[in-house]
Amino acid sequence: MTEIAQPDRIAKLEELRKQGIDPFPARGVEARPIHAVLAGLGTSAEPGPLAGESVTLAGRMLNLRDFGKLIFFPLLDRSGRIQVGLQRDKLTEWWPRRKLLDGGDQVAIRGVLGHTQKGEPTIWATEVRLLAKAVAAPPEKWHGMTDKELRYRRRYVDLWASEGVREVFEKRSAVLSTIRRCLEEQNYLEVETPTLHPIAGGAAARPFVTHHNALGVELFLRIAPELYLKRLIVGGLERVFEVSRNFRNEGLSPRHNPEFTMLELYEAQADYRRMMQLVEILFERCARAVNGTTQITFRGKRYDLRPPYQVVSYTELFREQQGFAYDDEPRLRARAAELGLDPATERWKLMDQVFESKVGDALEGPVFLSDYPVEICPLAKQKPENPRLAERFEVFVAGMELGNAFSELNDPFEQARRFEEQVATKDPEAPGEVDWDYVQALEYGMPPAGGLGIGIDRLVMLLTGAETIRDVLLFPTMKPLPRGAAEDPQAEE
User: In the beta sheet, which residues pair with residue 454?
Assistant: First the structure.
């Protein structure tokens, strides 16, 4: 057993076995959701149709209050909680076993729905069945789990012990469902593309590297599904999307986790302006689905996700923020040194680092930051009226980038040239080799297309008011602890 299993609970488990009771039975029960039962119970003044009915409920029992002849405890399932009342006179045969139960145990309750004298909705038990004995104690009843790191490590406790946690992940599920419905309404096809890539591409990031023994080749966990999805546009699928798990071998921060979820979509005959429309549609729909309004509060400020969104130019904002043009290399490197950046960094990467150092406050949004220098957009088309700029935008809310979109580059010769330039930089975040298979796909002809990627984790942060990406990931990446190093949840209170 681990260090959190408690000796007194283990002793009760053994006593149950001696009495012929399996503390971990193989069969469960057919139970009603607590929320549905409460909806049908009504109040003591105005009883509902389920008042006086016998039902079966199942869930986790918490905080037993033993008054000798009467015991009360809350029963919690995914949908809600209800008070359970145990009466000695109604459970004569079972009553001696009450001392073998503990807060945290999984139980099934068969009983009659009603209310206490104070009007508390209650199920008065006629049968109690143990479904799983908890040998680890739950957190202290009033505060839940207060240690943030422990909450992330033990999300399986946090979900029922801490107020509001479960609701965040229910909202996350609603965001994904809303996105899927919205795109399917617009004739998009959901697809699945490889997670293991022979070449790390589709974005600038350090990949995770693995090895396939049978083939004897090095493979990379995908950093983006982009290049495979655009192959499908070549294949004639015309409108495709994927909700994908991506992996980038980078540091941890309030906005970054090495494993994260992205929505990527591509649409033939579209461009980045059409992608702006899609962002506005998706953001508004998601906000209404999870909060019932487009008004949100994030880090103490209010925002409205109702369209239309402002559009600002990258190059114009760069000049406004920095006081010089984005392509003024001497002043760029001098400013980088002032900011503590490495002035020897590759020019265009350095430009973006300098830009990001001051731009956050200017992008409260929602706002589209558009028309980037083409040098930092290897997969985007140039603007016909100004080839130095790319038809690209990023969408920001509260200074946080939530999505990225292009008018997709479909010229195989230009794409090969840009890939070769990327590889030549030897930047560890650039591909190590040219993806000639993708270039070959473009040689068969890809129609004009728009593409969009949205960070699902950050969008959920925004819609739930979460301070960090860890609060919207069920199991965020954590530094492993040696066995025995973790503390008891109650010790954290």
Answer: 263, 403
Residue 360: predicted pLDDT: 66
Taking only the tens place, the pLDDT of each residue in 184-215 is 999 999 999 999 999 998 888 999 999 999 99
Contact between 376 and 349 (Cβ < 8 Å)? yes
Token pair in block for residue 389: 């700029």
Q: How far is CA 234 from CA 164, 187, 224, 285, 402, in A?
A: 45, 17, 18, 30, 27
State whether residue 210 is helix, strand or coil: strand
Report the distance separating Cα 132 and Cα 108, nearest Å.
10
The residue among 15, 27, 474, 437 whose CA lies nearest residue 234 is 437
Cβ neighbours of residue 40 closer than 8 Å, sequence gap 6 or more: 48, 49, 50
Q: Is the pLDDT of residue 343 over 70?
A: yes
Categorize the per-residue pLDDT at 21 as very low, low, confident or very high, splitting at 50, 70 and 90: very high
7-138 placed in CATH 2.40.50.140 = yes
Give the model confidence (pLDDT) of 158-191 as tens digits: 999 998 999 999 999 999 999 999 999 999 999 9
The pLDDT confidence band at residue 2, using thresholds 50, 70 and 90, is: confident
Give the per-residue pLDDT at 468.
96
What residue has token string 């999805």?
A: 229
Task: List residues bridging with 128 in a β-sheet.
Answer: 109
Look at strands 367-373 and 310-313 and give their pairing. parallel
DSSP 63-82: --EE-SSEEEEEEEETTEEE
Q: What are phi and psi of 82, to 5 degrees?
A: -145, 150
Which residue shows structure tokens 């979109």?
Answer: 405
- CA-closest candidate to residue 59, choices 105, 97, 23, 91: 105
Q: Does domain 165-309+365-472 have CATH number 3.40.630.30?
A: no
Task: State both tokens at 91.
Answer: 């459970």
What is the C-alpha to C-alpha distance for residues 488 and 136, in angstroms, rounded to an integer?
9
Cβ neighbours of residue 58 closer than 8 Å, sequence gap 6 or more = 28, 29, 31, 77, 106, 107, 108, 109, 131
Task: Delimit the domains of the chain by residue range.
Answer: 7-138, 165-309+365-472
**Separation of alpha carbons 475 and 143, rounded Å:** 21
Tens-digit pLDDT profile for residues 36-54: 999 999 999 999 999 999 9
